[in-house]
Specification:
It is built from 13 helices and 19 strands. By secondary structure, the chain is α/β, with parallel strands linked by helices. The chain folds into two domains: about 90 residues, Urease, subunit C, domain 1, CATH 2.30.40.10; about 300 residues, TIM Barrel (Alpha-Beta Barrel). Strands 1, 2, 3, 4, 5, 17, 18 and 19 form an eight-stranded mixed beta sheet that branches. It has a four-stranded parallel beta sheet with strand order 11-14-15-16. Strands 6-7-8 form a three-stranded parallel beta sheet. The longest helix has 24 residues. The structure holds zinc ion.
């Protein structure tokens, strides 16, 4: 008899413990306005339930137990953590060349660690970092340290260094006898390209970046930013084939329409910058599900001498024209179904990435579409749509809150007061 009692006792004790334990693990977020990453209109008075690092339910009529852990965001707009698809986290403010020549990758890794924290606290919970610009493996190390919880930062995908033909992406203006660190992995011809892509995969790259053209190689016009074409179609085919075989997407740094056409022909996954693309080219991209990451902000900052230091009069004229053309291009993209993704390219100002989204809206994008481009559409490009980019059951709890309503005033996206990543709170200014 006493044995049965003790078994019953044990059963109730364990189930009671499990019940209490399960209750303890749940966090209830009460929202005022909610953008879940996909919808066209904000929802109101929703509750998000989180267990450990995942969202377990989202709904209106969720009963909240009296003793539950509640985060009250009812006065705010709640959104999925933002995804910046074009960053250079181990660059920092100040002269670009000096960083590469005078600073060690170790120093830059420390700087990048500070930038990562600032980026996360600005509500950017995921970044796709498209080149460390000569900083060894600082980006890989930062990604891994963030993943292990050693330092705070966004989830990071890294490209390490882009692949480019000899001289296509390098520091310019130095004597050939003078040693300057590489800012790309140079490769000419199919076999070298194959080898560099395989090397990047071995070193831990999450994507491959390729330079279709760059001003560093050769300017072919003086009035706008241009570059000579880098690779032949044969070479590009090998690059994409090798990357895709390993499941890595390819991001193509592109200015001109003809370079974009070539990149589209070989099936890259995204066109970065795309300064002068035609409407037909955007149509083709839409048909082939190739994403457009316009990076509007960086050229305006460069024009205004807010990055890369003071610029010459000639350069100012050239960049003024470039920005004008880029804006027209962005407006052409908006007329087509091409998927546009938020990418700031603004290493100088960590924490202000969302200024890019302000510009996207300024130049004609609907604010709700701009929010999608920084959440669900970005997660599609990054291949992370089963884990981040929306506030839905089963996703990681990457949740931010801003003051105001960014659908009515996109600048409110810069007023971040709460950041949760992976179920952990990193900023709470409530
Ligand atoms: Zn860039």
């Amino acid at each position: 008899m006493s044995k049965i009692y003790s078994i019953f006792f044990l059963f109730f004790w364990i189930s009671g413990f499990l019940f209490i334990h399960a209750q303890e693990n749940l966090v209830y977020i009460k929202t005022g306005k909610l953008f879940d990453g996909r919808i066209n209109q904000l929802r109101t008075d929703m509750v998000i339930v989180i267990k450990d690092n995942k969202i377990v339910s989202v709904g209106k009529d969720i009963a909240i137990p009296a003793d539950a852990t509640i985060i009250d965001l009812t006065g705010m707009t709640v959104l999925p953590g933002l995804i910046d698809a074009h960053t250079h986290i181990v660059l920092h403010s100040g002269n670009y060349e000096e960083q590469i020549i005078r600073e060690t990758p170790e120093y830059r890794a420390i700087y990048g660690t500070v930038n990562a924290k600032a980026t996360l606290e600005a509500g950017i919970t995921t970044i796709r970092d498209v080149g460390n610009e000569g900083a060894g493996f600082a980006d890989v190390a930062l990604r891994d340290a963030v993943n292990k919880g050693i330092v705070p930062g966004p989830r990071i995908q890294v490209a390490i260094q882009p692949v480019s033909g000899t001289g296509s992406y390098a520091l310019v203006g130095f004597s050939p006898y003078y040693f300057v660190p590489n800012i790309s992995y140079e490769a000419d011809g199919p076999s070298e390209i194959r080898k560099q892509v395989r090397r990047l995969i071995k070193e831990g790259a999450d994507l491959i970046k390729v330079y279709m053209e760059s001003f560093e190689k050769k300017q072919i016009r003086t009035d706008i930013l241009t570059g000579a074409l880098n690779y032949s179609k044969e070479e590009l085919k090998i690059l994409v084939e090798e990357a895709h075989r390993a499941g890595l997407p390819v991001a193509a740094h592109t200015y001109s329409d003809h370079a974009a056409r070539l990149a589209i022909e070989v099936n890259v996954n995204s066109i970065e910058h795309g300064l002068y693309l035609s409407e037909e080219t955007f149509q083709l991209m839409a048909e082939k599900n190739i994403y457009y990451v316009p990076t509007l902000l960086v050229y305006e900052l460069w024009r205004d001498s807010k990055i890369f230091g003071q610029i010459s009069i000639e350069n100012k004229i050239k960049l003024t024209n470039t920005v004008e053309e880029h804006i027209k291009t962005f407006k052409r993209a908006l007329k087509t179904p091409v998927k546009i993704v938020f990418g700031s390219d603004t290493f100088e100002l960590p924490g202000t990435n969302a200024q890019e989204i302000e510009l996207m809206v300024k130049y004609g994008m609907q604010s709700i579409d701009a929010l999608k481009s920084a959440t669900s559409i970005a997660s599609d490009l990054l291949g992370l749509n089963d884990s981040v980019g929306t506030i839905e059951e089963g996703k990681f709890a990457d949740i931010i809150a801003v003051k105001g309503n960014p659908v009515e005033n996109i600048s409110d996206l810069l007023k971040v007061v709460f950041v949760m990543k992976d179920g952990k709170i990193y900023l709470n200014k409530l």
